[in-house]
């Protein structure tokens, strides 16, 4: 029988640019698995629903997938804020919820059925910062981040403590809001504070614009960014203005492992553009689940199978497009059992000539 | 730094003003808060992008066609949506809500067509480098936006104040019935206004798309918020108000970043708006005219 | 049958909760509209209510009714303070001032520690049950219905029609406007409190411009000439995306189209008593012709 | 009962009223006439509190009105009609009139919410009285129609009924018969006499001389913001200044 | 006398209220025709129908042989049928001068327009003094003058007047009627709706009486003035 897998992502609305890439990643993975005969002879059937990046919609979609479609597990939702609304539903019904793009703190504290393979900024940013400091001999930085978005704000929090740990002084901290396109006021202020580099917790599109506007103000500082930078969009928009930007992530388009090369080639062939990290993480996520399913004997009783999957997942070790992967149990909070975060190595990249290459 | 911030404020303010001109025109004449103006603005930049990308068209030609396309869409929206509502004597909120529907549709269809990601004009469409005087920087597009928005305002002002067309438009704005009695082709001018406003919106879209490299189906929404603030600040339907209001908002935002904190940029801008309305209940240029009895 | 219901309820309970909450929000804006005030502060009031109630639930041992009470009182106090200077603005200027106020509230919440900044508050206990919503919506409808038939309702309507004439009929215009504004804030705030306690999480983005406009849309779509309209409008607009799910990527376009078409043919909203009367007349007269 | 003392009013640079003073005794019908733009409506706006005088004092039963809010002025017993008709168009005729009784409907929030007897009685009485007033102006048969559907003249009558509903002691009428034909005017004249009989005082702006001459006890003439004559109708009619500025030869004859 | 405008079997309703029922009315070129009737009789409705501002249910309105019911309001004005509507329809946010300029919206002959403007200022000197002020700040009577002046600026062939003397001081009423007579003598056809029945019938060559949406009487102005039914119902005691 088919294994029904729920996918609840933002396919319309402003978060769709991530949601659509994620959906593509899943589709590619499912096709790959099914082409090889599925898992233990069972094909994977994706049930895709649009949660619009809204919390009420996420709850509705989760309920629909869990109660009506009776899916084995749910992937998603796209945004951390939606996850805080929807994940409790999954946990209450003892269904695995697997986030591939939720990076906020506390997601996996919502219950033991919460999993994610999205790397947390806390695992990546300190490494990136350290590498940047070494490379450019940085003493003081300015920081810029989006303050009305859970992802960019938590990235900022991590940067802040990493910078404090590494005793880098901060000359100026500036923020912007979703939808802003003009960052010159902040950048002019940053320019006046004369930092050695600019630390930026932003998503790729904003980052690209910020970089372009920085250059147009006559500033030459390197940028240090997080996961958000890891997208071909950065170069589509900023091209080589983005040179000397450092970014750390487990996944790199330059990673030449066989799995990754095949992933990138297949993705391009199927969707006509280059994958980003969101697609890669989604691709891996479904493969991780497939690995786990290989060890599970499905009974046909959905409740039992869901729990069996949950019990099988933590033990999975996997090497995919994003490299070596394992789960790491999150620290329990308030006496509540917690779920599982990702345990992965970050690769630090530097932008050169309009693409990221591994920083040596 | 202050001088650079002045330039930043001027250029940001001009962007707002440029967007607001078409927006305020529709309100001024049709009395409709056209919440689809943001969507039309967005469409303008996509049309030009498509032409430049697919047909290697020169930017200026692409911009012209984008304006025409948007204008035609404006006319279609007026003809299919706003006009029937006028005919049915709809209550004043109905057209605004209908334009929300239009905005949702256009945005959703644009996403289906062009995808959700941000796009930009190809490199080299316009000169990238910025003018540098001493320590001050201004890009060519920024300069163009400043000049164009001032020029457009002057042109529109002259039309509205000095020509019979302008008087007719203002007559319609106040009372279509009275305008009819004067022999004014009211419906024709409504269509004309919708065309002009949408074309202006399209032009704004192209320029903003060029200047910020963030063309996306959702680019109209934040601009719409600011646009509403601007036209209210300036006085609804007032052409001067759109420019002054835009510049005011630009300055408020930039200066609050420069001298307060970027955390409160929007709060300062909207808070100021709030305060200004308390002092001048009809905006800076709004006419306070009420015969009491 | 029972089983079917259980399944249905499991899937759609949140949708149905949403209808109730949205109905309250639409009614809250109906109230101010009925007094001629185009106020778009209701999303902000909803947020203030939601945050007040959630913080009580998460940080104190107080009972749910206390949290809901706070969800009503906190926005009422804010409305009082904001309303006194703002309510003399008219039309779109009031709309803008109230939107501006909403924006200020959003940015403040965004930058405060205790509200969780952009992350918002997470892990809000699940406390709202279906009958809470039914009872509170019922009370709201009852009070508003009684109000409509009283001198207060008439005063609201008179103010909407002609403020100056109303004033010279002895109506304390400023006072009644403030009353409508504050009552609207209470309803929106309680709706926010209820909503927070079944969605587990709230954030500053939930109460922004789009939400304010959405609330207005529901009310106008349904019709604002009486209480049925807002309830009907919110019901339909809450269900619509659910019903349209099969259209996938273009369902929002379909939503937009339906919105336009309904407004075109029913510019006073779906529930337009005059139109319904006319239809009935047509119906009965054609019937009587048959008889004759 | 009503006393204006040295009232002046400017709009920006425009001086519309200059040192206007007159006294209106209780129970009388007082007429104010004058050319268009003389400032008559402005005086009514000042009395009802919609405008505030630039200088001078308005007293009603010895109370200074210049600091009282408009709705309180109505509650003190002053009602008016408008030159440019301001009825509540989307309300029925009956409701229009009941709004006028706003201040006289006394019931508690509790009785309103739970439809108690005090609420029901008050509302029923108000409706009854509204019908009565509508009958007076011969509009009772349209009581449940929307006011918007009335013709111009009918709207004037509705406004009249609505003003009476506030139970005023002093009624200010701004051109009550504009737009009515002579027969209708005659009718209204009878009604106004009737009202005065019941103890109302009436302050009236009117351009119809027949109307003014027949009804008013005293008449003041305003020209360019100044009172140029005051007296009985006959005195005023004979005043050459008034003929020159306002009446013209024909009507005087 | 040639008929310039003829209303044939005209009916108009508001929803289910029938305001005008199958009326016949003819304007002779160069004459003043008065239309009188009680409040709500349907006078304004008839005029609105002629100007195309309200949809007719049945009937024709022929102007110089052409049916106006198929034209839109601005085309009707272009043909030369101009109305001074009830409630004046002054553009309050425009200046007095701009209102007058717009009166000539359908015309191009600059020189003649300026002459007509002088004529209007000659008729109503107040307007000249207030030319640059906002029309909304004029008093009621001043606005009425502006409305008439503005209509004259269109150089109409037929002028429809809905209660032009309403709200005017006696001196002004005389003035208006004098002006109407004067412009009529320049050859302008006028349809005059008036409550000031006596004056109206005095200057009108012909008159119609409308009751409950129906024409009940039609005769020369002089005869109507002496008609007992008219005296009783419209001229008062
Ligand atoms: N709000 C205002 N701003 C400026 N001028 C005004 C205002 N209100 C009235 N006026 C001017 O004041 C003068 C007096 O106006 P008012 O309406 O009192 O005249 P009136 O005597 O009632 O005339 P009518 O008989 O025509 O109604 C007019 O010239 C008018 O233009
Ligand atoms: N907009 C409307 N909707 C519905 N009914 C209307 C409307 N306008 C007028 N009526 C009705 O149509 C009838 C004729 O009205 P009309 O305005 O033509 O009268 P009139 O003869 O001009 O009266 P008046 O002398 O009072 O101005 C009246 O009974 C009136 O109630
Ligand atoms: Mg007056
Ligand atoms: Mg009439």
Automatic annotation (TrEMBL), chain B:
Transmembrane segments in this chain: where? Answer: 6-28, 35-53, 59-81, 93-116, 136-159, 241-261, 267-289
InterPro entries referenced in this protein's UniProt entry, alphabetically: ABC_transp_permease (IPR001851), BCAA_transport_permease (IPR052157)
**Looking at the keywords, is Transmembrane helix present?**
yes
List the membrane topology term(s): Multi-pass membrane protein
Keyword set includes RNA-binding: no
Q: What is this protein called?
A: Branched-chain amino acid ABC transporter permease
Can you say where in the cell this protein is located? Cell membrane
Q: Which Pfam families match?
A: BPD_transp_2 (PF02653)
> What broad taxonomic lineage does this protein's source fall under?
Bacteria, Pseudomonadati, Pseudomonadota, Betaproteobacteria, Burkholderiales
Keyword set for this entry?
Amino-acid transport, Cell inner membrane, Cell membrane, Membrane, Transmembrane, Transmembrane helix, Transport
Q: Which CDD domains match?
A: TM_PBP1_LivH_like
Similarity comment: family membership: Belongs to the binding-protein-dependent transport system permease family. LivHM subfamily.
From TrEMBL, chain C:
Q: Which UniProt keywords apply?
A: Cell membrane, Membrane, Transmembrane, Transmembrane helix
Q: Does the keyword Transmembrane apply?
A: yes
Q: Determine if Nucleotide-binding is one of this entry's keywords.
A: no
Membrane topology classification: Multi-pass membrane protein
Q: Identify the InterPro entries for this entry.
A: ABC_transp_permease, LivM-like
Where does it live in the cell? Cell membrane
Annotated transmembrane regions:
6-30, 37-56, 62-84, 91-110, 130-147, 178-198, 218-240, 252-271
- Pfam families hit by this protein: BPD_transp_2
Task: List the signal peptide residues.
Answer: none
Q: What is this protein called?
A: Branched-chain amino acid ABC transporter permease
What is the source species?
Undibacterium aquatile
Automatic annotation (TrEMBL), chain D:
Ranges for domain ABC transporter come to 2-249
The organism's place on the tree of life at top rank: Bacteria
**Transmembrane region positions?**
none
Protein name per its UniProtKB record: ABC transporter ATP-binding protein
- GO MF terms on file? ATP binding
Q: Which PANTHER family match?
A: CONSERVED COMPONENT OF ABC TRANSPORTER FOR NATURAL AMINO ACIDS (PTHR45772:SF9), CONSERVED COMPONENT OF ABC TRANSPORTER FOR NATURAL AMINO ACIDS-RELATED (PTHR45772)
- What CDD domains does the record tag this protein with? ABC_Mj1267_LivG_branched
Q: Which organism is it from?
A: Undibacterium aquatile
Keywords linked to the UniProt accession: ATP-binding, Cell membrane, Membrane, Nucleotide-binding, Transport
Automatic annotation (TrEMBL), chain E:
Q: Per the record's keyword annotation, is Nucleotide-binding included, yes or no? A: yes
Sorted alphabetically, which PROSITE patterns does this protein's record hold?
A: ABC_TRANSPORTER_1, ABC_TRANSPORTER_2
Lineage, top-rank taxon, reads: Bacteria
Q: Which UniProt keywords apply?
A: Amino-acid transport, ATP-binding, Cell membrane, Membrane, Nucleotide-binding, Transport
Which intervals hold domain ABC transporter?
5-237
What GO MF terms are annotated?
A: ATP binding
The record ties this protein, via SMART domains, to: AAA
Q: Which InterPro entries match?
A: AAA+_ATPase, ABC_branched_ATPase_LivF/BraG, ABC_transporter-like_ATP-bd, ABC_transporter-like_CS, BCAA_Transport_ATP-bd_LivF, P-loop_NTPase
Q: Which residues are the signal sequence here?
A: none
Q: Name one Pfam family in it.
A: ABC_tran
Q: Which family does it belong to?
A: Belongs to the ABC transporter superfamily.
**Protein name according to UniProt:** ABC transporter ATP-binding protein
């Amino acid at each position: 029988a088919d294994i029904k897998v729920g996918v609840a992502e933002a396919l319309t609305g402003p978060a769709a640019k991530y949601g659509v890439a994620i959906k593509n990643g899943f589709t590619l993975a499912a096709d790959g698995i099914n082409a090889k005969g599925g898992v233990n002879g069972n094909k994977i059937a994706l049930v895709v629903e649009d949660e619009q990046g809204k919390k009420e919609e996420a709850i509705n979609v989760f309920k629909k997938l869990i109660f009506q479609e009776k899916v084995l597990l749910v992937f998603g939702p796209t945004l951390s804020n939606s996850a805080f609304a929807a994940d409790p539903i999954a946990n209450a019904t003892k269904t695995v919820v697997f986030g591939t793009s939720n990076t906020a703190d506390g997601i996996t504290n919502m219950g033991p059925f919460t999993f994610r393979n999205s790397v947390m900024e806390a695992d990546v940013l300190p490494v990136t910062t350290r590498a940047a400091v070494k490379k450019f001999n940085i003493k003081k930085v300015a920081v810029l981040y989006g303050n009305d978005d859970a992802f960019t704000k938590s990235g900022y929090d991590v940067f802040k403590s990493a910078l404090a740990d590494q005793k880098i002084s901060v000359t100026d901290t500036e923020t912007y809001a979703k939808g802003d396109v003009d960052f010159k006021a902040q950048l002019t202020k940053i320019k006046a504070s004369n930092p050695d580099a600019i630390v930026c917790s932003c998503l790729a599109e904003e980052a690209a614009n910020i970089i372009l506007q920085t250059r147009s103000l006559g500033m030459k500082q390197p940028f240090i960014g997080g996961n958000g930078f890891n997208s071909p969009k950065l170069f589509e928009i900023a091209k080589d203005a983005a040179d000397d930007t450092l970014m750390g992530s487990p996944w790199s388009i330059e990673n030449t492992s066989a799995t990754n090369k095949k992933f990138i080639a297949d993705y391009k062939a199927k969707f006509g553009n280059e994958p980003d990290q969101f697609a890669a993480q989604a691709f891996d996520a479904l493969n991780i689940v497939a690995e786990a399913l290989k060890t599970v004997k499905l009974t046909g009783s959905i409740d039992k199978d869901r729990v069996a999957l949950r019990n099988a997942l933590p033990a999975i070790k996997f090497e995919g497009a994003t490299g070596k992967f394992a789960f790491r149990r999150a620290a329990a909070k308030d006496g509540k059992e917690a779920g599982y975060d990702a345990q992965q190595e970050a690769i630090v990249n530097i932008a050169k000539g309009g693409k990221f290459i591994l920083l040596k | 730094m202050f001088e650079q911030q002045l330039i930043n404020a001027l250029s940001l303010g001009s962007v707002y003003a440029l967007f607001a001109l078409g927006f305020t025109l529709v309100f001024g004449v049709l009395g409709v808060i056209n919440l689809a103006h943001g969507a039309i603005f967005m469409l303008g930049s996509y049309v030009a992008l498509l032409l430049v990308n697919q047909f290697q068209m020169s930017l200026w030609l692409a911009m012209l066609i984008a304006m025409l396309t948007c204008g035609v869409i404006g006319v279609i929206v007026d003809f299919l949506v706003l006009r029937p509502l006028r005919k049915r004597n709809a209550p004043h909120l109905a057209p605004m809500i209908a334009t929300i529907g239009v905005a949702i549709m256009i945005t959703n269809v644009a996403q289906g067509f062009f995808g959700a990601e941000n796009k930009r004009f190809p490199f080299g469409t316009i000169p990238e480098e910025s003018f540098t005087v001493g320590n001050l920087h201004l890009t060519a597009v920024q300069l163009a936006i400043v000049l164009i928005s001032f020029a457009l305002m002057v042109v529109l002002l002259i039309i509205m104040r000095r020509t019979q067309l302008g008087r007719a438009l203002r007559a319609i704005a106040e009372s279509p019935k009275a305008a009819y009695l004067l022999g004014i082709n009211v419906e024709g001018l409504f269509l004309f206004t919708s065309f002009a406003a949408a074309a202006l919106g399209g032009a704004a879209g192209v320029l903003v798309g060029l200047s910020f490299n963030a063309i996306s189906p959702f680019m109209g929404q934040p601009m719409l918020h600011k646009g509403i603030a601007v036209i209210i600040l300036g006085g609804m339907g007032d052409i001067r108000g759109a420019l002054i209001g835009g510049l005011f908002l630009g300055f408020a935002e930039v200066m609050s970043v420069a001298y307060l904190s970027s955390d409160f940029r929007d709060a300062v801008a909207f808070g100021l708006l709030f305060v200004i309305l308390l002092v001048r209940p009809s905006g800076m240029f709004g006419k306070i005219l009420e015969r009491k009895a | 049958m029972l089983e079917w219901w259980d399944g249905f309820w499991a899937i759609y309970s949140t949708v149905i909760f949403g209808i109730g909450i949205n109905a309250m929000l639409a009614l809250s804006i109906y109230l101010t509209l009925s007094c001629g005030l185009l106020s778009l502060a209701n999303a902000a009031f909803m947020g203030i209510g939601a945050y007040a109630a959630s913080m009580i639930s998460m940080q104190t041992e107080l009972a749910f009714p206390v949290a809901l009470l706070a969800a009503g009182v906190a926005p009422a106090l804010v409305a009082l303070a904001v309303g006194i200077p703002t309510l003399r603005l008219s039309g779109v200027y009031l709309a803008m001032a109230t939107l501006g106020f909403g924006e200020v509230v959003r940015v403040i919440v965004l930058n405060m520690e205790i509200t969780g900044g952009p992350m918002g508050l997470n892990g809000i206990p699940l406390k709202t049950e279906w009958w809470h919503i039914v009872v509170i919506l019922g009370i709201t409808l009852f009070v508003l219905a009684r109000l409509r038939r009283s001198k207060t309702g008439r005063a609201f309507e008179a103010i909407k029609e002609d403020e100056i004439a109303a004033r010279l009929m002895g109506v304390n215009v400023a006072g009644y406007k403030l009353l409508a504004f504050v009552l609207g804030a209470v309803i929106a705030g309680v709706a926010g409190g209820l909503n927070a306690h079944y969605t587990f999480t709230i954030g500053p983005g939930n109460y922004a411009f789009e939400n304010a406009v959405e609330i207005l849309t529901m009310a106008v779509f349904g019709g604002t000439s009486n209480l049925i309209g807002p309830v009907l409008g919110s019901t339909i607009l809450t269900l619509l995306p659910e019903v349209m799910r099969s259209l996938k990527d273009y369902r929002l376009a379909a939503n937009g189209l339906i919105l336009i078409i309904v407004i075109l043919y029913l510019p006073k909203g779906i529930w337009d008593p005059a139109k319904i009367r006319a239809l009935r007349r047509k119906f009965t007269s054609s019937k009587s012709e048959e008889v004759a | 009962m009503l006393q204006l003392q040295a009232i002046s009013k400017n709009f920006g640079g425009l001086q519309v009223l200059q040192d206007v003073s007159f006294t209106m005794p209780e129970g009388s019908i007082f007429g104010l006439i004058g050319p268009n733009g003389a400032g008559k409506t402005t005086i009514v706006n000042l009395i009802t509190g919609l405008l505030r005088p630039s200088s001078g004092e308005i007293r009603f039963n010895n109370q200074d009105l210049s600091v009282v809010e408009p709705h309180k002025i109505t509650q003190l017993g002053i009602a008016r009609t408008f030159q440019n008709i301001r009825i509540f168009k989307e309300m029925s005729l009956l409701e229009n009139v009941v709004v006028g009784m706003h201040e006289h409907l006394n019931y508690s929030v509790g009785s309103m919410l739970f439809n108690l007897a005090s609420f029901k009685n008050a509302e029923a009485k108000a409706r009854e009285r509204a019908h009565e007033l509508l009958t007076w102006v011969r509009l009772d048969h349209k009581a449940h129609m929307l006011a918007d559907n009335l013709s111009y003249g009918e709207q004037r009558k509705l406004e009249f009924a609505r003003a009476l509903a506030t139970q005023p002691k002093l009624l200010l009428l701004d051109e009550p018969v504009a737009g009515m034909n002579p027969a209708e005017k005659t009718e209204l004249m009878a009604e106004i006499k009737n009202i005065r009989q019941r103890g109302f005082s009436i302050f009236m702006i009117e351009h119809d001389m027949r109307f003014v001459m027949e009804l008013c006890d005293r008449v003041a003439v305003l020209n360019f913001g100044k009172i140029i004559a005051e007296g009985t109708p006959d005195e005023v009619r004979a005043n050459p200044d008034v003929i020159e500025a306002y009446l013209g030869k024909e009507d005087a004859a | 006398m040639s008929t310039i405008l003829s209303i044939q079997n005209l009916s108009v309703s508001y929803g289910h209220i029938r305001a005008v029922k199958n009326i016949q009315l003819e304007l002779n070129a160069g004459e003043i025709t008065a239309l009188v009737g009680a409040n709500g009789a349907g006078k304004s409705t008839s005029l609105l129908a002629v100007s195309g501002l309200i949809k007719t249910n049945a009937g024709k309105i022929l102007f110089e042989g052409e049916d106006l019911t198929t034209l839109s309001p601005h085309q009707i004005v272009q043909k030369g049928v101009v109305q001074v509507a009830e409630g004046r329809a002054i553009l309050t946010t425009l200046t007095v001068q701009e209102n007058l300029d717009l009166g000539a919206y359908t015309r191009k002959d600059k020189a003649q327009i300026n002459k007509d403007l002088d004529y209007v200022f000659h008729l109503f000197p107040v307007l000249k003094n207030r030319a640059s002020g906002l029309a909304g700040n004029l008093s009621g009577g001043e606005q009425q003058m502006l409305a008439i002046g503005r209509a004259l600026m269109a150089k109409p062939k037929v002028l429809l007047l809905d209660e032009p003397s309403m709200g005017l001081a006696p001196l002004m009423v005389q003035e208006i009627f004098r002006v109407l007579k004067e412009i009529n003598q320049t050859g302008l056809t006028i349809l005059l709706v008036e409550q000031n029945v006596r004056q109206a019938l005095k200057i009108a060559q012909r008159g119609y009486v409308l009751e409950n949406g129906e024409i009940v009487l039609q005769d020369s102005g002089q005869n109507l003035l002496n008609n007992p039914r008219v005296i009783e119902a419209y001229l008062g005691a």
